[in-house]
């Protein structure tokens, strides 16, 4: 493992599939939209497999390029009504956010989800107080999406950090590419839509893929796992 975690001063986390599981709501929203467009809804497994990159790319994969713009418009209008359905924080997330901040490491969300939905979900799940910042797409300041280099550069600038002192943590090739665009180290957790075998070919360091945040925190910083009775133990 080439990464020296002692040099990391900022960690940027992807959201969906990395910090939270929001796929139930995404599936519900897509299904509702598909019905209004006269389309046959797809299974949750199909939705999980299609998600990644941005809602525009996901919708293109699901209903084709021609219908995608209208699908995106309807999805964005409907998602706020269902976004909290079935959403939950993934194992070890609150634990690692607390441990990193105790260590003096700044933590932020760096996602392709719309900024408004990102902020609402983080607040709903009690994650906002554990973060230094959150960056989503669809705003005047952040009009890009991962893996566009401009997005990575804008987030690094906003955090006042440099690639060598920043770690990207995600669950997809888009996160790996976003980090690579600016020479930032990257680690992955296989808690989202991509299995290890699909992430490994794209990952610069094959040792930096983990089953969950507990494994990542132990391997990189030797954070002790919570003892039974600790508030973080319920995350296991």
Automatic annotation (TrEMBL):
**Official protein name in the record:** phosphoglycolate phosphatase
What UniProt keywords are attached to this protein's entry? Answer: Hydrolase
Cite the EC number.
3.1.3.18
| Pfam annotation, one family | HAD_2
Give a GO molecular function annotation for the protein.
phosphoglycolate phosphatase activity
Enumerate the Gene Ontology biological process terms.
DNA repair
Q: Which family does the record assign?
A: Belongs to the HAD-like hydrolase superfamily. CbbY/CbbZ/Gph/YieH family.
Q: Would you tell me the Gene Ontology cellular component terms? A: cytosol
Q: Which organism is it from?
A: Candidatus Spyradosoma merdigallinarum
**Signal peptide (UniProt feature, chain positions):** none
InterPro entries, sorted: HAD-like_hydrolase_sf, HAD-like_sf, HAD-SF_hydro_IA, HAD_2, HAD_sf, PGP-like_dom2
Question: What's the catalysed reaction?
Answer: 2-phosphoglycolate + H2O = glycolate + phosphate
According to UniProt, this protein's pathway is: Organic acid metabolism; glycolate biosynthesis; glycolate from 2-phosphoglycolate: step 1/1
Q: What class of enzyme is it?
A: hydrolase
Which domain of life does the protein's organism represent? Bacteria
């Amino acid at each position: 493992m080439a990464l020296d975690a002692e040099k990391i001063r900022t960690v940027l986390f992807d959201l969906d599939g990395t910090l939270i599981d929001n796929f139930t709501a995404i599936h519900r929203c897509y299904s509702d939209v598909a019905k209004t467009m006269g389309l046959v809804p797809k299974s949750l497994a199909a939705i999980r497999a299609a998600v990644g990159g941005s809602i525009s790319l996901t919708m293109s994969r699901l209903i084709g390029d021609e219908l995608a713009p209208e699908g995106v418009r309807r999805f964005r209008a409907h998602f706020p009504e269902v976004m909290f359905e079935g959403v939950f924080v993934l194992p070890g997330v609150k634990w690692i956010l607390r441990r990193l901040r105790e260590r003096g490491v700044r933590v932020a969300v760096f996602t392709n989800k719309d900024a408004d939905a990102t902020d609402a979900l983080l607040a709903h799940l009690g994650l906002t107080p554990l973060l230094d910042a959150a960056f989503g797409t669809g705003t005047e300041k952040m009009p890009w999406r991962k893996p566009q280099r401009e997005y990575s550069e804008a987030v690094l600038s906003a955090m006042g950090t440099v690639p060598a002192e920043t770690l990207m943590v995600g669950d997809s090739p888009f996160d790996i590419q976003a980090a690579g665009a600016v020479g930032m180290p990257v680690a992955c957790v296989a808690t989202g839509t991509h299995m290890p075998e699909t992430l490994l070919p794209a990952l610069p360091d094959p040792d930096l893929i983990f089953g969950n945040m507990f494994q990542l925190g132990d391997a990189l910083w030797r954070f002790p796992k919570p003892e039974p009775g600790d508030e973080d133990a319920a995350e296991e």
